[in-house]
Amino acid sequence: MDTPADDPILDAARETVLHFGVRRATVSEVARRAGVSRMTVYRRYPDGGALVRALMAREFGVVLARAEARADGANERERLVGAALGALELLITDPLLLRLLEVDAELLLPYFTGEPGRFQRQAGELLVARLRAAQADGSARAGDAEEMARACELAARGLVLRAGALDDDERAASLRELRRMLDGYLKP
Question: What whole-number distance in Å separates Cα of residue 188 and Cα of residue 123?
Fold first, then answer.
């Protein structure tokens, strides 16, 4: 399902999850905050799970788009690393992710230990495309772009999981070190 950026139901779902967490958020509360009936919510989203998945896809899609828009560098590898670190920085400071880690961390665990979700697939596809472009311009080493992208994504997972436990200085230091690690790993 497409998730428009200006969906008042998803806006209300975001506020509800920020206030209550996922487990205690209800369709009734989302409908109340959106100023619509529960049936209106159910016409768009068949159940609470679908509503939360749409919310997460929208929120994390915005993170990817913002990171891509801000990415710069002298070559494709530098832009790839910049976009990846920009996405991580936005993600690990995102109020919604931090709230989920605070009250519903176990709900996120399958996304880190099992099959990737929609956001992870989207991010992975973007990473592979950027890596292939970096290989094409000679700024990244040769190799299987999908395997290399997977290794980069795995290196970043721990930082996302620890996001709520890091203060500003620790977060900045972790991002600097991850930048060095990714750039060094990808250099020819």
Answer: 23
Contact in structure between 119 and 56 (CB atoms under 8 Å):
yes
Which residue is associated with the tokens 């529960």? 38
CB-based contact 124:67 (threshold 8 Å): no
Distances (CA, A) of 183 to 54, 80, 170, 171, 188: 33, 9, 20, 18, 10
Class of the CATH domain delimited by 1-51 = mainly alpha
Domain ranges in the chain are 1-51, 71-186
Measuring CA to CA, which residue among 121, 53, 56, 115 is closest to residue 91?
Answer: 56
Contact indicator for 130, 67 with CB cutoff of 8 Å: no
For residue 139, give the nearest of 182, 81, 76, 80 by alpha carbon. Answer: 76
For 40, other C-beta atoms within 10 Å of its C-beta total: 13
Average pLDDT over residues 35-63: 93
Q: Could you count the other beta carbons within 10 Å of the beta carbon of residue 53?
A: 17
The pTM of this model reads 0.84
Reading the block at residue 39, the tokens are: 């049936």
Q: Is a pLDDT exceeding 80 seen at residue 127?
A: yes
Amino acid at 99: R
- pLDDT number for residue 1: 44
Q: What is the 8-class DSSP label of residue 140?
A: S
